[in-house]
């Protein structure tokens, strides 16, 4: 099956930053390797480092001495996050890996979806969320999308976040209103594909987003998300998430806006929420939360300097994904996000509060 990835991730390769090897994770050992390694899991030392991590070289002794095949599956997969359905395999990255985060910060090429990039070969094993035999994603509760329309929605998301003429706020507003228009379809309107044609052709930049998303952009959402942290992570002394958060997240990203946009594209692309959630609003809510969380993490780190730097952005992106990917219990987290699917408000009533501030969004298919 074809492998799809974002262009900003397409050159990824491990540069031995050591974040994954010193994160304090208890790493399960595959059954076929347990007798060889003599343990069922690799327990970190008091500093959070894996027993096989060689600090002077920054290398894993297992991989250095025996090759990648010797690694536990969890190590071999990190930082890859994969989804597989009947369209192919979709690979994005956890930006807790500093190398992955720095790709977002330093990339200057136009963002797009690429097929079978060298970094993610077709013959590699991907421990993916397997949706090959599942129904297509939901458009809204009880209403299925189809895979072609969902691909076009995904293309629209990536294309919108690729448009560097738009602010992050404008990008999120456009995504939110387009989701409302897309999910308004009913069979009485004819073919969903024709409806999608019209929706994407009419996508506009507006001055505000639907009110139903305000809870996901309030700084208080950070404390809410912390409530979904798995018990074992909350009790771990090496937990990388702090409850000492800034009261106001950064919203004006300056020259780092493209990095944040690429981060949001990475959240939208190959998203597990397509299959774990109950409609397109769930993914939009997740994007709102992600932008708020990374804004808080950046504010915490930039406050002493009163300025953002590339290193601060890398650290903020890493901390956000530590929380959103590696710490929260995803099932209740997605269920909480999914409450937005039944929030009151029709497309007509929601749209009445928004004013069009610019023309159509140019988001051509990017595959």
Per-chain topology:
Elements: E1 3-6, E2 27-28, H1 31-37, E3 41-42, E4 53-54, E5 59-60, H2 61-66, H3 73-77, E6 80-85, E7 88-93, H4 98-106, E8 113-115, E9 129-130, E10 138-140, E11 143-144, H5 147-162, H6 168-183, H7 192-202, E12 204-206, H8 221-226, H9 231-234, H10 257-268, H11 273-276, H12 280-302, H13 310-327, H14 330-337, H15 347-351, E13 356-360
What can you tell me about this protein's structure?
By secondary structure, this protein is α+β, with helices and mostly antiparallel strands. It folds into two domains: 3-115, no CATH class; 134-360, no CATH class. Helices cover 41% and strands 11% of the residues. The chain contains 15 helices and 13 strands. The chain has helices at 31-37, 61-66, 73-77, 98-106, 147-162, 168-183, 192-202, 221-226, 231-234, 257-268, 273-276, 280-302, 310-327, 330-337, 347-351; strands spanning 3-6, 27-28, 41-42, 53-54, 59-60, 80-85, 88-93, 113-115, 129-130, 138-140, 143-144, 204-206, 356-360. The chain has a five-stranded mixed β-sheet, covered by helices on one side. Strands 2-3 form a two-stranded antiparallel sheet. The chain has a two-stranded antiparallel ribbon with strand order 4-5. A hairpin with a 2-residue loop joins strand 10 (138-140) and strand 11. 44% of the residues are buried.
């Amino acid at each position: 099956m074809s492998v799809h990835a974002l262009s900003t991730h397409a050159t990824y390769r491990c540069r031995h930053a050591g974040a994954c090897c010193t994160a304090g994770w208890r790493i399960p050992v595959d059954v076929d390797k347990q007798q060889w390694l003599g343990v069922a899991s690799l327990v970190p030392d008091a500093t959070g480092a894996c027993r096989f991590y060689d600090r002077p070289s920054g290398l894993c002794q297992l991989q250095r001495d025996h090759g990648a095949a010797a690694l536990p599956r969890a190590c071999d997969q990190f930082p890859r996050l994969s989804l597989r359905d009947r369209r192919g395999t979709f690979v994005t990255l956890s930006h807790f890996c500093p190398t992955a985060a720095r790709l977002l910060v330093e990339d200057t090429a136009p963002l797009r979806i690429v097929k079978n990039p060298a970094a993610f070969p077709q013959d590699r094993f991907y421990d993916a969320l397997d949706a090959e035999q599942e129904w297509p994603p939901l458009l809204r509760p009880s209403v299925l999308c189809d895979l072609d329309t969902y691909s076009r929605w995904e293309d629209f998301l990536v294309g919108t976040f690729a448009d560097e003429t738009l602010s992050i706020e404008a990008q999120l507003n456009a995504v939110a209103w387009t989701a409302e228009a897309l999910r308004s379809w009913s069979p009485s309107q004819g073919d969903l594909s024709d409806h999608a044609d019209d929706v994407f052709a009419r996508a506009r930049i507006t001055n505000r987003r639907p009110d139903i998303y305000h809870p996901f952009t309030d700084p208080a959402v950070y404390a809410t998300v912390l409530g979904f942290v798995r018990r074992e992570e909350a009790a771990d002394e090496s937990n990388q998430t702090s409850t000492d958060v800034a009261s106001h997240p950064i919203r004006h990203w300056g020259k780092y806006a493209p990095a944040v946009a690429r981060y949001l594209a990475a959240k939208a692309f190959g998203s597990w929420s397509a299959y774990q959630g109950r409609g397109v609003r769930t993914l939009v809510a997740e994007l709102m939360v992600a932008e708020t969380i990374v804004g808080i993490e950046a504010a915490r780190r930039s406050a002493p300097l009163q300025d953002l730097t590339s290193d601060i952005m890398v650290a903020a992106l890493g901390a956000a994904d530590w929380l959103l990917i590696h710490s929260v219990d995803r099932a209740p987290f997605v269920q909480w996000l999914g409450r937005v699917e039944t929030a009151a408000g029709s497309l007509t009533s929601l749209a009445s509060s928004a004013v069009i501030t610019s023309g159509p969004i140019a988001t051509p298919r990017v595959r």
